[in-house]
Amino acid sequence: MIDHLTSDPVHISSDRITEAMSRSAGGMTPNIRKTTMRLGKKTRAVCGSLKMLDGEKDSRVLDGILNTETDHSHVLLTTGLGLPADGRIPLRLPVLLVSGLEIMQRYYDAGIEPPHYLIYQATQFIAETNAITTDVASEVAGLMRGYIQHFIQSRYPDLTDLVHLVFDADMPDISSDVDAIQQTLTADVDGLFAEHLHTLIDANRRSKRELRSTTRYAAANVLLNGGRANYPFDMPAHAKIIMPIGGLKEKPFFHLTRLCTSGTVPVIPQTCQPAKAPSYYPHASGDITHECNMSNRAELDQLFADVRADYELLADMGLSIPDLKQLCSQPSS
């Protein structure tokens, strides 16, 4: 079941995405784009940039589709979230979503139908793979979902009907599909998929994750990014493009998705500048979590540079550490 948020409670790597949408809608000129940005200069610079894996090829695909359409509900933005095994939720969690939300807001402000945005977490799949108990996984997933819900309602209230949150029990069972893709990956671990699989394997050796878990995660990403015809989520009625958005750590998963793609809908992954260190896990060198009392500037300055940059971006949006804590502590509606 896809859950809509309720109303209660691009410099994209190539400007051709924005320009194609502008031509088809007859409307989003550079001046409109400039005046509809509501954030500070630093946030604009960071959030206004998404990078395609293959800019020239992907731009041709986008141009071919977007030039024939008059609304943009056919574009489905997606972001998948991990699950912190220790239950500590970084307060910078929403920063991963800001680039996609800003793209949507620009179109909304220009009077153009924005893309939809699917934000999901394969909660029980992650729990099973990482030996996290079901109860703990569900509790943490509920807190994360609530935090994201309140963040969007607070900062992007115009978009609540276009954002879909799929967590925990709402997620479809993906185990059998993942098994099939995993067999494909492991059978060719030194072939077509070698470079990107070994990048993941080497990284996960450092985190002591087993080879089986690494390839299983890779297989799940291929499926959930839209790389197979049996896409597990309900698509918006007119969706013709799946556009996964993730941080730099997602690039190997995105490359594998492209190599494995056999779906009927084009998949055009994008990497964003925020969340260079995944924002859904506390960083090993230190982070500010929902249970943490760290809030002053001196302590923030001690954080790893990429982590600190995420909090500075949120501060540029007018969200202090106490503001983030308050959003995270509100019950999910």
Tell me what you see in this structure.
The protein has helices at residues 16-25, 30-36, 41-47, 55-66, 98-109, 123-130, 134-155, 175-187, 194-206, 211-224, 251-260, 297-301, 305-316, 321-329, and strands at 3-4, 50-52, 75-80, 116-121, 163-167, 241-246, 270-272. By secondary structure, the protein is an alpha/beta fold. It has a single domain, classed as HUPs (Rossmann fold). The protein has a seven-stranded mixed β-sheet, covered by helices on one side. α1 runs parallel beside α4 and α9 (194-206) packs antiparallel against α11 (251-260). The model is unreliable at 6-38 (pLDDT under 50).
Report how far the terminal alpha carbons are from each other. Answer: 16 Å
Q: What's the SSE pattern?
A: EHHHEHEHEHHEHHHEHEHHH
Identify the CATH homologous superfamily.
HUPs
Mean pLDDT: 79
Widest beta sheet: strand line-up: 1-5-4-3-6-7-2
CATH class equals Alpha Beta
Biggest pleated-sheet summary: 7 strands, mixed
The number of E-state strands comes to 7
Rg over alpha carbons: 19 Å
| Structural class designation | alpha/beta
Task: Enumerate how many helices there are, as a single number.
Answer: 14
